[in-house]
Write a structure and sequence with these properties.
mainly alpha, 3-stranded antiparallel sheet, single chain, 6-stranded antiparallel sheet, Transferase(Phosphotransferase), domain 1
Length: 972
């Protein structure tokens, strides 16, 4: 059912309900007309409303489903065996499931658990599917305030079950009442509940049924979140669920659940708001206006909730549609504040504002996350200004005074005494004292700022999708503050160290391409320069401090990686290696030093990769993997060791592909995928999910080189499925947006290799348009040279030589003007060969000769310096192009002597092509440099024209045991 259809049903039902029986029939005849389905839906709702009691809307819809005959004959499961457990007693039941206390009976050990089974008689495919989804969701959650999944399976009669941690506790509202918790104590307990919900949100799971019965508090006072039976992953299919199709508890449902709108994390924010409202006031946010189901539905959708401070002053009406009424006003207030007036004062102001913001009808106007909601509650408890308030100067001043009454009184006394002392103190002593105090204050300020703001707050935001704009603002303020403090840092190593770490952290989140960043590349470079200058000053002042030396090596290494495509990059990496050389010679250098050394070797390997010395790059990256693997074996608890190993293997694997070692490349990349997948399954941060997608993308490219296009397509799809939810939630994150566009392009490029040229051309054209619209301070996509080359390939496949020529010429222009580093140089050879091929097909032989000559010159120049498969491949392509040209000229010549001479030249060039091509291991049409591996357009004709007598013998296969460097030296 679509949201539009539900709105139509709802409108007719609400009007029909208020009419008399006589009026109702005529109204339905008029409104429904020939729409029999609409009438059936409305009449079923009218019948249900007529049967409803005041508790109807508190029940999930599944509770109203008819029970099967089997269920009627079997009324209890007490005493039954489920797996290794025996059911002892029923704990409770909900819309779809029944929960029992059970004991382990296999004799291994004594244990009591909670077992949840599909409710008797509700074994429909819909209910079973919901149940299995709950099991999968619980398996992905591991948090101390979420009931843990211990086991699961299927009974002998094919009923799925869950074995969960047995929570011996009370529902949260009853717990608060029985212990007469104060307002502050209830809010502290609420903060712990928010932790559990925020944890689920970080894993893209919305609970959708947060209410007191699903929150139990143990005897130790620890809240536990239960029942993810109707939880929803934030990766919706093509059709959104509607209220009629989605189970819920309406009393705690959000307006979008009632109206059938999109379900987001804001849905749980609203439900948490209702829970907190009830914990603090004992009332529904909609007071006495919620006597019937329809009135409750209307109130949630259309009526603004009453202020908590005002609702507690009125007696609880008999019709208050509460799940657990707490009685008259005196009962409500006695456990919170001594009198209703005191409770009203306690809730007025900040608490009113916080709850009303959480309960906004418009999802976008609520708190942006559960963490923001919890932060405001915590700020209120600590006497700090809350975001839900307007934040005027007088409001902020009141908050400050309220927090520091004693301190302000003491300060006033001290200031009086200090004023008298200042008069009697010499001027120079006063200045010295002020300077010392200022320096100490600066140091304390920067420590607190760096630790709590840059690290804690930013890291918390980074883990929440959709916070890029907030992170940008935070980082701008951080730069301003650090710059102001650094003016007073000369000669103070501790302060300089703190500042350097702050700048280094800023640079990483501003523009480090290896992690989720805010795209501020220029700002990142400026922050890195400041960090280097500060770290150098600290290292000079403390030459024997390993940490300070390591910090300096780290910042040089990161600067080198930032500039790895430019001449400045390698010297920075070598400076870092020079520092760790000395540290590695120490006895037991430790995991920190070894991991930094591995990162430097990886960076240097990338530098050699850029310059084209792929065998040297493979050697360095292999050493880096060995070092990281050693740390993970010897120090398995080292921070992020498993993630680092997965990352290093991914880099190493793709580098192997450049040397033609495709089997070994696939092994390393598959190991990288497995490592990242294990971390994601445990609930890793969004950046790790992105790294998993990027590693799958690289594996797919190697599979294209191997010719396994089906496997490549599967991995591209898996990568898209991983990144899509991140990009949708955090739309301001440039990396996620670029990733999605790149994966769309990969799918289109794959179509070229599959021979589906028309689809490929349309897809690549869309990719080009999207990349140009996106824009970025730094080009992190495939680039116009690659994009237009593959567009030309698709057009050439469609026999559209004229259009293909324009695309190849545009790609060639980019290769001439772009920075001449990395694979664009070998790509340029391929592009000019394709320009020549297009001209040849258009019978423009003289222009084709010029293009092929340019390709040959570039290929021979590259072969002097570069040692990799793309270089060998481009050299063979240039030779093949010239061979095609000479054969075309021979076919058009009138002189027999000229024809023979041109044919011999063609065969000589074709033979040279064969000699080079056999040494380029990939036999597919995709090269590691992102460009196509092309065949001569007159390949079959050349083979027929050049018989065995004119062809030179093929070179022998590579000698076993030779290094990659020796093999490429011999080939070139």
């Amino acid at each position: 059912m679509t949201p539009e259809r539900w709105q139509q049903i709802r409108a007719v039902f609400e009007q029909a309900e208020i009419l008399s029986e006589a009026e109702r029939e005529a109204y339905l005849d008029r409104e429904c007309g020939s729409d029999a389905e609409l009438r059936r839906e409305v009449e079923s709702l009218l019948e249900a409303a007529a049967r409803a009691t005041t508790g109807f809307m508190a029940k999930p819809a599944a509770e109203l489903l008819p029970r099967t005959p089997a269920a009627e004959s079997q009324t209890t499961r007490i005493g039954q065996r489920v797996g290794v457990y025996k059911i002892i007693a029923e704990i409770g039941h909900g819309g779809m499931g029944e929960v029992y206390r059970a004991a382990r009976i296999d004799g291994q050990f004594n244990q009591e658990v909670a077992i949840k089974l599909v409710r008797l008689g509700l074994g429909s495919s819909f209910v079973v599917q919901r149940f299995l989804q709950e099991r999968q969701i619980l398996a992905s959650l591991d948090h101390p305030r979420i009931a843990r999944l211990l086991d699961g399976g299927t009974t002998e009669d094919a009923v799925p079950y869950l074995v969960m941690e047995l929570i011996d506790g009370e529902r949260v509202d009853a717990y608060c009442e029985s212990r007469k918790l104060s307002v502050d104590e209830r809010m502290q307990l609420f903060l712990e509940i928010c932790e559990a919900v925020q944890y689920a949100h970080q894993r893209l799971i919305v609970h959708r049924d947060i209410k007191p019965t699903n929150i139990l508090v143990t005897r130790e006072g620890v809240p536990k979140l239960l029942d993810f039976g109707i939880a929803k992953m934030l990766d919706p299919g093509p059709h959104q669920e509607t209220t009629l199709a989605s189970p819920m508890t309406p009393e705690y449902a959000s307006p979008e659940q009632i109206s059938g709108g999109p379900i987001t994390t804001a849905t749980d924010v609203y439900s948490l708001g209702v829970v907190l409202y009830r914990l603090l006031t004992g009332r529904s946010p909609y007071g006495s206006r919620t006597r019937t189901p329809v009135e409750l539905s209307r109130a949630i959708a259309d009526t603004h909730p009453q202020r908590p401070s005002s609702i507690v002053m009125s007696a609880a009406p008999a019709g208050d549609n509460m799940e657990s009424s707490t009685g008259p006003t005196s009962t409500v207030t006695s456990s919170r504040e001594p009198t209703p007036a005191r409770l009203r004062r306690r809730l007025s102001g900040d608490v009113d504002n916080i709850l009303l913001k959480a309960l906004r009808k418009e999802a976008e106007l609520r708190y942006g996350s559960v963490q923001q909601f919890a932060d405001d509650v915590a700020r209120h408890l600590n006497g700090l200004p809350v975001r839900a308030a307007k934040g005027s100067w007088s409001y902020l001043a009141r908050k400050f005074v309220a927090r520091h009454r004693a301190a302000l009184a003491a300060t006033a006394t001290v200031m009086l005494a200090l004023s008298a002392g200042i008069v009697a103190t010499e001027r120079q002593a006063r200045i010295a004292q002020t300077e010392r105090a200022r320096a100490q204050k600066r140091f304390d300020d920067v420590r607190r700022f760096s630790d709590s703001l840059i690290f804690d707050v930013h890291d918390a935001l980074e883990a929440i999708p959709g916070t890029t704009s907030a992170r940008n603002l935070l980082l701008d303020r951080a730069v301003q503050y650090l710059d102001s403090v650094s003016k007073d840092a000369d000669g103070d190593s501790e302060l300089q160290r703190e500042l350097a770490m702050g700048y280094q952290r800023l640079a990483r989140v501003q523009g480090d391409a290896t992690v989720s960043n805010t795209g501020q590349v220029s700002a990142a470079e400026a922050s890195t320069r400041k960090a280097i200058a500060l770290f150098e000053a600290v290292a000079r002042a403390n030459p024997n401090n390993t940490t300070d030396q390591l910090n300096l090596a780290m910042v040089h290494r990161r600067k080198g990686l930032d500039d790895v495509y430019y001449p400045d990059g390698r010297p920075e990496l070598e400076r870092a290696l020079a520092i760790t050389d000395a540290l590695m010679r120490q006895p037991n250098p430790g995991s920190d030093v070894e991991m930094e050394r591995a990162a430097e070797l990886q960076g240097l390997g990338m530098s050699y990769d850029v310059s084209g010395d792929r065998p040297r790059a493979v050697e360095l990256l292999g050493k880096a993997v060995e070092l990281v693997n050693e740390v993970t074996q010897c120090d398995p608890g080292y921070r992020n060791a498993s993630e680092s190993l997965a990352k290093f293997r991914a880099e190493y694997g793709y580098e192997l592909a450049y040397t033609g070692a495709l089997e070994k490349a696939s092994e390393q990349l598959e190991a990288g995928v497995a490592g990242y997948q294990a971390l994601v399954d445990k609930g890793a941060a969004p950046d790790t999910t992105r790294d998993l997608a990027q590693t799958r993308l690289r594996l797919a490219k190697v599979q294209m080189m191997e010719g396994d296009l089906a496997a490549a397509g599967r991995n591209f799809t898996l990568a898209q499925q991983a990144v899509a939810p991140l990009a949708r939630i955090d739309s301001g994150n440039m990396l996620y947006r670029m990733d999605m566009l790149s994966l769309d392009f990969e799918q289109a490029r794959l179509l070229v290799l599959e021979g589906k040229f028309a689809e490929a051309e349309a897809g690549i054209a869309r990719s080009i348009e999207s990349f140009h619209k996106l824009g970025s301070e730094e080009d992190t996509g495939p680039g116009d040279a690659v994009l237009f080359t593959w567009l030309g390939e698709a057009q050439l496949g469609r026999k559209n030589s004229a259009q293909a020529l324009l695309s190849f010429q545009r790609a060639a222009k980019v290769t001439e003007t772009d920075v001449q580093y990395d694979d664009i140089e070998t790509g340029a050879v391929t592009v000019y060969v394709r320009v020549g091929d297009s001209l040849l097909l258009l019978n423009r032989l003289k222009d084709a000769e010029q293009a092929y000559t340019t390709a040959q010159a570039k290929a021979h120049a590259l072969s002097k310096d570069r040692r990799d498969t793309p270089t060998l491949s481009s050299l063979s392509e240039a030779q093949a192009g010239m061979a095609s040209l000479w054969l075309a000229l021979a076919n058009t010549s009138r002189s027999p002597e000229d024809r023979e001479s041109l044919r011999n030249r063609a065969c000589k060039a074709f033979n040279e092509r064969v000699q080079a091509r056999v040494l380029a291991p990939t036999t597919a049409r995709f090269s590691p440099n992102e460009y196509p591996v092309i065949e001569p357009i007159r390949g079959p004709e050349l083979r027929r024209a050049c018989d065995a007598e004119t062809m030179k013998p093929l070179p022998p296969p590579p000698v076993p045991g030779k290094t990659e460097a020796e093999r490429f030296d011999n080939a070139l």
